[in-house]
Amino acid sequence: MTYWLYNLFLALFFVLSLPILPFVVLSGKRFRKGFLQRFGLYPRQIYEAVRGSRPIWIHAVSVGEVLSASRLAGQLRERFPGRK
């Protein structure tokens, strides 16, 4: 019985908080800072730093991917010193 009530409460909470959630998330300074970068829109300084070169973009999400990507980035720097 309590499991059923718990699921009902959770579902109601989710449905009621759904319209408010985007405002709460977007009002956070940490989330807004990199919001446009999530859609591929980077600050002008980044574009100017890589202008004229062929950058190598590395994407990582989880902690394991970031650790692997950092190792990969180090090896790429050694192999291609002129690339950014």
Notes on the protein architecture:
The chain is 62% helix and 0% strand. The protein has 2 domains: 1-38, no CATH class; 42-84, no CATH class. The mean pLDDT is 87. The protein is elongated. It has 84 residues and is mostly helical. It has 5 helices and no strands. The chain has helices spanning 2-17, 21-27, 29-33, 44-50, 63-79.
How would you summarize the topology of this molecule?
Blueprint: H1 2-17, H2 21-27, H3 29-33, H4 44-50, H5 63-79
What does the largest sheet look like? none
Strand content: under 5%
Structural class: mainly alpha
Shape: elongated
The amount of helix comes to 55-70%
Gap between N and C termini, in Å? 59 Å
Q: What's the structural domain tally? A: 2
- Mean of residue pLDDT values: 87
Counting DSSP E segments of at least 2 residues, the number of strands comes to 0
> In terms of per-residue confidence, which ranges show pLDDT below 50 for 5 or more consecutive residues?
none
Radius of gyration: 21 Å
Count of alpha/pi helices = 5
Helix and strand element order: HHHHH
Give structural attributes.
84 residues, mainly alpha, 2 domains, 0% strand, elongated
Question: Could you give a short description of this structure?
Answer:
The chain is built from five helices and no strands. The chain is mostly helical and 84 residues long.
